[in-house]
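Retro notes, item 3 of 5
We never archived the inputs for the calcium ion complex last cycle. Fixing that now. Sequence and ligand:
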Amino acid sequence: MTDPLHTDLLDLAQEAARRAGALLRDGRPADLAVAATKSSPIDVVTEMDIAAEKLITGLIAEHRPDDGILGEEGAATEGTSGVRWVIDPLDGTVNYLYGLPTWAVSIAAEQDGETVVGVVTAPMRGETFHAVRGCGAWATGAWDGERRLACRPAPPLDQALVSTGFNYVHDVRAHQAEVAQRLIPLLRDIRRGGSAAVDLCDLAAGRLDGYYERGLHPWDLAAGDLIAREAGALTGGRPGERPSGDLALAGSPGVFEPLQRLLEDFGAWHD
Ligand code: IPD
Ligand code: CA
Ligand code: CA
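Structure as it came back at the time:
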């Protein structure tokens, strides 16, 4: 039976994601411009990233004022309830800026440091993904109602479709390109979708066999990692470690282990 707290957290996460997704989809200015840059000139923030985070944190504060919040655009409150929200108000900002459809709102709730709820909504795809720890992963689509997610049976690695992403910092991305160059001949192919949260949900939905990236932050990963695990995927970082900024990796059982070994051999976590 689902913990009633988790049900409440899921309801609030879904409502916040729905409202922020609608704001981003319907409120995108035709002349949307870069408002600021962060780790490098190509790491951009738009006014809409900031507006979406404000909407989400406002709603959470209204309903659960004692919770902690960590948001990419600056939200950082400690909280006293043992619950912390980890929010990427717009994952895939570069896609959003260019009018490409792969972007999402990602909201996770942690209880005592463990992610218990994850919601990722991708409005231009008409899809919302969610998971509650121990209760499976689910997708609601505009066309096919609600369905339970399961990652696809693992193919041999040389037939695996694996997604990745490239960091905004020049030297990191140059090294990532070298690693990808070594991996491509060993896989079916590589994808670069532009949203880590959507990549993890696509893995959960059986549309990818694996995903890896270096340089992610907790807000990129928190919700999608739970959704992927609840769909049967394995997730981690370097061997024996949890996903981290060094390396975040996810795959169907059978793809995860050999991919992790290759990434370790190729030194994917450092320059
Ligand atoms: C980015 C996306 C992208 C990944 C980057 C992230 P943002 O998040 O998830 O797919 O490759 O590492 O920073 O900046 O669009 O929120
Ligand atoms: Ca992100
Ligand atoms: Ca973001």
